[in-house]
Amino acid sequence: MDQNIEIEFKNLLTEKEYMDLFKGLNLKTQNIFSQENIYFDTINFDLKKKKLALRIRIKNTHAEITLKSPHKEHLLETNIAISLLEAQQIIKSNAYYTSDSIADILRSYGLDTNIPLKIFANLRTERIEQKNNNSIIVLDKNYYANQVDYELEVESSSAEEGNQLIDDLMKNYEIPKRKTPNKIMRAFNAIHSKDTEV
């Protein structure tokens, strides 16, 4: 298990803005990699109510369980590496086995860990990254609920540096600032709106 403070800044993009950044940063299509996020919650969305997010992320050769919890102005990520087989077993059973460490965190928020967790959203991302000093520039193309969106993220070890970098990128590429809910919220909202369509 490892824990880290997630300092990231993000902004939704149009397809053209995504392509302009891709070309302008001299990124290469062969460096794109794919990952799938499977999100869990109780049937009553008890984690969402506590501003918690629980997912399994599947990559080509491995997977990990991640719990995101509020931490000051950022998020605390608790990550546990699991095998692809373990990930598939969790997904196949449509239930979630909480490790002791994650269960402890859930209980610290007053959650009953005996309540079963279910899959409520899947999101696949085609991602490319570029290192920039103490930060990483990330371009994501996301697929969920029959939708596609594009996103710029800057992950940094310094809030000041990360904020400055994304501001500079958006200014240089004439990208307007947009309200950007995190991926789990976008997937949840897309699925919820489909569920309520008449």
CATH topology: Hypothetical Protein Pfu-838710-001
Can you name the CATH architecture?
Answer: Beta Barrel
- Spell out the helices and strands N to C: EEHEHEEEHHEEEHH
Radius of gyration: 17 Å
Q: Identify the CATH homologous superfamily.
A: Hypothetical Protein Pfu-838710-001
Strand content: 35-45%
- Given as residue ranges, the uncertain stretches (5+ residues, pLDDT < 50) are none
Pfam families: CYTH
Domain CYTH: 4-194
Summarize the structure.
The protein is 30% helix and 40% strand. By secondary structure, the protein is an alpha+beta fold.
What report would you give on this structure?
- This protein is of the alpha+beta class and 198 residues long.
- It has a single domain, classed as Hypothetical Protein Pfu-838710-001.
- Helices cover 30% and strands 40% of the residues.
- The chain has helices at residues 15-24, 46-49, 84-93, 100-108, 159-172, 183-195; strands at residues 2-6, 8-13, 33-41, 53-58, 63-71, 74-82, 118-132, 135-144, 147-156.
- Strands 1-6-5-4-3-7-8-9-2 form a 9-stranded antiparallel sheet.
- The longest helix is centred in the last third of the chain and has 14 residues, at 159-172.
- The chain starts with a strand and ends with a helix.
- 24% of the residues are buried.
Which keywords apply here?
single chain, 198 residues, alpha+beta, Hypothetical Protein Pfu-838710-001, 9-stranded antiparallel sheet, 6 helices, globular, CYTH-like_dom_sf
